[in-house]
């Protein structure tokens, strides 16, 4: 089995990493297999991420769920006016999660959720047609959330806890469309910072009006990632006072929001074997107005308007218990892009997508199960442009046709005691 | 269990084999169309403009941005092959002959300690020695400095002739043999498509030297021409026809370019004819000096019948306090009165007589060369006149020499030749069903209204306009990209082709750098 998984991974390895925005929905293989709907599903410790209020409903006293997903994605760009074309070439993104809960008594459970809900990895060929906007970007953030889950009465439970985030950013682009040094090499800046930390919080409730119906609501707050005093490295800058930068390392400041999101959903147990879910997510991307990079020790700031809008995701999922060993899952979702017309930047080339998901759990024994999932994200081909790059005081649109897709196979374990 | 793993592995493969594909991908190879032409072997013949020369030098980055190389990049969409260029060794652009520098490095825009920008040579030891012969054939046959008749001149690539001035140092690097001609080497590559742009240097040397050369109309032997002479229009027509016919013979098509007007390039439009500011005392001193010239010398010369009334009027000099005084120039079309002034009754000293010899003040119709900017206003000594110490200042009390000024007569001489060349070029282009690019019109548009692109407007303003490099004559990569696009347009039209054009804004304009000596 290991060999098969490995070989299929090797086959996948030529593909590139996930590129859709920087919210990566892969925080539980069971939920992911059902269209990443989990806010109203009491199944395993994944609840710690999707709806901590439900942890108290888990039957066992100790529950652990952990997993990792390989993100293989690819974005193609072309401009038929100029003939420019390009394709991202990235490593494999690996969002992971570790969730655990411990039932202290019938009405109280404690838990912890460690996850990577935000991240991005996009690598265009160096000096490609849009290199003045991005050559490559890598964002990573790890959420650590201690939790409590309280059963208020037979119908209602609540949960939540503070979130600690630690993140890193690496972003590389050329300074302009045409600036080169004395040897013809494109002038470039790379910003890099890690160990960026901040706090947020999450809270949720779960409502169980009947044995068959579960309704859940979850909220996670916005967390601002403020990079202060990271390293900005300028290279290939010509030696001239006419250029507002010089070669070398200088500190930079930048802020990137991890937006708030809320989810509401329901699951219904149609029979002992069959369950279905429906869920709605709203991500408050509106907060991401502009990516501004400033240089406190001098140098022209880089102002990059983003003007995201709040975006919705509509999810459907189903689960079928084949026998006491095997459970099958499937799902579908529609993922609205937060990017507005004219703001389509190739560092987050995200248009509306459809997610097709599937997966299964295999119970090795009473305590241990293997959870597998896959997600295929399909994006429509889109003609889009980013119009807010300026050069010499003039707006210079960068546009073309984009086509993306992403494939995310994931594997995890569920343990209960 | 294994069954499911296996199924999911199959599913993985099925999905991952669906890389994102465009409905209509330009990588498929049949998105664009070559039309009736065959671009598989593209060869370019021409001078500095074809080579990618800029900033007074040929250097690697400029060559990479030569207009034929930009075109060749777009030809790749329609079956174009490799485009080999005789690349220089570095981005300095200087040339050596047996270790001695014979051509300086390229110009960059340097800022002095006051923050004033100006073109200066990039510092460094150039690595290109023309005695290092390159081997193989080169698609880009552009030879900086070549005139029309040089294309057919045996020995033009003979390195032994470079020092004597009979050979071209650039062509000497990649000529197939010492006796080869540029056209022979171009035709030997069996081009399926070509670009052909020649004739600029047949007038340019005369122009940039301020008209110091000879207009060789009527002299049909170009081997007797000097570098700054204007080629006879019949010689031009004859060699142009011969060279173009050789290119046309086996090619599916080609694109030819005419010769732009040299008088609206920054080399002639940057320094105005009236750049001289004067304060009150200086103006008063000059009024005294030139008052004598205006009211005594000129009427006397006219009285003796040495100069006409019209000439006397044209030679009047008027300096006023404030900005905008016209420079004084030596105009070779004026009567030289120096010897008369040295004789009685005026009996002026020789140095003063020489100053007045062919002196007049410039008019708005005179063009001052870019090279004069480092000369005008420089003090060069003093002179005693009627008991006064007159400071000798270039362009004021010392007239600018012929080499710094293109007078209306000289401009007219150039325009006549250019017009004749261009008639020949357009007629032969039509006769051979070739794509034709009216560079004369394009550069006039750049200079008069500017040409917009994605991110700005290309104008002929020196250093800031974006189209012309720091030598004021040759184009920047951005300017060459514009030319490449116009050539692609003409090709699309003539050959029913569909070849995409480049984004001009992705090509740089002038290079700023303080890496200067």
Automatic annotation (TrEMBL), chain A:
Q: What SUPFAM superfamilies does the entry give?
A: Porins
Principal place of residence: membrane
How does this protein sit in the membrane? Multi-pass membrane protein
Q: Which InterPro entries match?
A: OMPP1/FadL/TodX
| Protein's cellular compartments | Cell outer membrane
Tell me which Gene3D superfamilies the record gives.
Outer membrane protein transport protein (OMPP1/FadL/TodX)
| Keywords carried by this UniProt record | Cell outer membrane, Membrane, Signal, Transmembrane, Transmembrane beta strand
Signal peptide residue numbers? 1-19
Q: Does the keyword Chaperone apply?
A: no
Similarity annotation = Belongs to the OmpP1/FadL family.
Which PANTHER family does the record cross-reference, listed alphabetically? OUTER MEMBRANE PROTEIN NMB0088-RELATED (PTHR35093:SF8)
Protein name as annotated: Aromatic hydrocarbon degradation protein
Q: What is the lineage of its organism?
A: Bacteria, Pseudomonadati, Bacteroidota, Flavobacteriia, Flavobacteriales
Automatic annotation (TrEMBL), chain B:
InterPro entries noted in UniProt: SGNH_hydro_sf
Which domain of life does the protein's organism represent? Bacteria
Question: What's the protein here called?
Answer: Outer membrane protein
What is the originating organism of this protein?
A: Psychroflexus planctonicus
């Amino acid at each position: 089995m290991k060999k098969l998984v490995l070989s299929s991974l090797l086959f996948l390895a030529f593909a590139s990493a996930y590129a859709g925005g920087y919210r990566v929905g892969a925080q539980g293989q069971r939920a992911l297999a059902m269209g990443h709907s989990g806010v109203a599903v009491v199944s395993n410790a994944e609840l710690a991420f999707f709806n901590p209020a439900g942890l108290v409903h888990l039957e066992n006293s100790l529950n652990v769920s952990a997993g990792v997903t390989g993100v293989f994605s690819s974005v193609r760009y072309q401009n038929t006016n100029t003939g420019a074309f390009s394709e991202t070439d990235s490593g494999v993104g690996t969002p992971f999660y570790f969730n655990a809960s411990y039932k202290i008594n019938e009405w109280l459970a404690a838990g912890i959720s460690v996850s990577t809900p935000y991240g991005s990895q996009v690598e265009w060929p160096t000096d490609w047609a849009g290199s003045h906007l991005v050559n490559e970007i890598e964002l990573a953030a790890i959420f650590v959330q201690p939790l409590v889950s309280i059963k208020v009465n037979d119908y209602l439970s609540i949960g939540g806890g503070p979130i600690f985030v630690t993140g890193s950013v690496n972003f590389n682009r050329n300074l302009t469309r045409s600036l080169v040094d004395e040897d013809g090499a494109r002038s470039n800046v790379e910003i890099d910072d890690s160990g960026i930390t901040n706090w947020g919080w999450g809270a949720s409730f779960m409502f169980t009006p009947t044995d068959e119906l579960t309704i859940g609501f979850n909220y996670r707050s916005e967390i601002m990632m403020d990079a202060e005093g990271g390293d900005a490295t300028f290279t290939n800058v010509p030696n001239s006072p006419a250029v507002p930068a010089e070669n070398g390392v200088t500190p930079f400041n930048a802020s990137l929001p991890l937006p708030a999101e809320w989810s509401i959903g329901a699951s219904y147990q149609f029979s002992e074997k069959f369950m279905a879910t429906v869920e709605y997510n709203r991500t408050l991307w509106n907060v991401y107005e502009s990516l501004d990079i400033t240089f406190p020790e001098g140098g022209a700031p880089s102002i990059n308007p983003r003007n995201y809008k709040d975006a919705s995701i509509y999810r459907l999922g189903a689960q079928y218990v084949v026998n006491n060993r095997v459970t099958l899952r499937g799902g579908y979702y529609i993922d609205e892009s937060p990017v507005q017309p004219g703001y389509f930047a190739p560092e987050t080339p995200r248009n509306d997508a459809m997610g097709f998901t599937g997966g299964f759990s295999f119970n090795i024994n009473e305590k241990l199960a293997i959870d597998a999932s896959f997600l295929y994200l399909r994006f429509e081909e889109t003609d889009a442009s980013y119009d807010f790059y300026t050069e010499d005081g003039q707006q210079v649109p960068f546009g073309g046709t984009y086509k993306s897709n992403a494939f995310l196979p994931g594997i995890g374990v569920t343990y209960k005691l | 269990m294994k069954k499911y793993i296996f199924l999911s592995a199959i599913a993985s493969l099925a999905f991952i084999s669906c890389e994102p594909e465009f409905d209509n991908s330009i990588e498929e190879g049949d998105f664009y169309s070559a039309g009736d032409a065959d671009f598989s072997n593209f060869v370019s013949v021409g001078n500095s403009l074809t080579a990618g020369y800029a900033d007074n030098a040929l250097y690697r980055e400029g060559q990479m941005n030569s207009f034929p190389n930009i075109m060749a990049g777009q030809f790749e969409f329609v079956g174009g092959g490799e485009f080999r260029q005789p690349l220089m060794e570095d981005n300095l652009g200087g040339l050596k002959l047996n270790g001695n520098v014979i051509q300086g490095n390229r110009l960059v825009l340097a800022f002095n300690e006051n923050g004033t920008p100006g073109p200066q040579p990039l510092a460094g030891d150039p690595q290109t020695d023309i005695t290092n012969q390159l081997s193989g054939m080169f698609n880009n046959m552009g030879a900086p400095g070549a005139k029309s008749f040089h294309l057919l001149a045996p020995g033009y690539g003979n390195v032994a002739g470079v020092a004597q001035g009979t050979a071209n140092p650039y062509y000497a690097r990649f000529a197939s043999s010492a006796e080869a001609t540029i056209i022979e080497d171009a035709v030997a590559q069996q081009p399926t498509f070509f670009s052909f742009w020649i004739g600029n240097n047949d007038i340019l040397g005369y122009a940039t030297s301020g008209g110091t050369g000879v207009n060789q109309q009527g002299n049909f032997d170009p081997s007797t021409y000097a570098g700054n002479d204007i080629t006879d229009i019949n010689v031009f027509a004859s060699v142009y026809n011969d060279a173009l016919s050789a290119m046309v013979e086996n090619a599916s098509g080609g694109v030819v370019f005419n010769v732009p007007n040299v008088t609206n390039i920054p080399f002639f439009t940057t320094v105005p004819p009236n750049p001289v500011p004067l304060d009150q005392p200086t103006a008063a001193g000059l009024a005294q000096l030139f008052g004598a010239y205006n009211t005594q010398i000129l009427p006397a010369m006219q009285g003796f019948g040495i100069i006409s009334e019209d000439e006397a009027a044209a030679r009047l000099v008027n300096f006023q306090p404030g900005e905008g005084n016209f420079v004084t120039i030596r105009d070779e079309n004026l009567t030289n009165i120096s010897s008369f002034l040295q004789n009685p009754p005026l009996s002026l000293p020789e140095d003063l007589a020489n100053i007045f010899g062919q002196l007049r003040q410039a008019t708005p119709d005179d063009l001052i060369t870019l090279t004069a900017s480092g000369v005008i206003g420089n003090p060069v000594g003093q002179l005693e006149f009627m008991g006064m110490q007159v400071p000798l200042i270039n362009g004021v009390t010392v007239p600018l020499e012929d080499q710094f000024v293109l007078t209306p007569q000289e401009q007219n001489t150039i325009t006549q030749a250019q017009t004749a060349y261009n008639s020949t070029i357009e007629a032969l282009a039509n006769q051979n069903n070739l794509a034709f690019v009216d560079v004369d019109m394009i550069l006039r548009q750049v200079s008069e209204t500017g040409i917009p692109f994605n991110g700005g407007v290309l104008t002929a303003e020196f250093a800031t306009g974006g189209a012309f490099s720091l030598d004021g004559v040759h184009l920047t990569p951005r300017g060459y990209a514009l030319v490449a696009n116009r050539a692609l347009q003409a090709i699309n039209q003539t050959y029913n082709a569909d070849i995409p054009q480049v984004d001009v804004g992705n090509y740089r304009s002038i290079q700023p750098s303080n890496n200067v000596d």
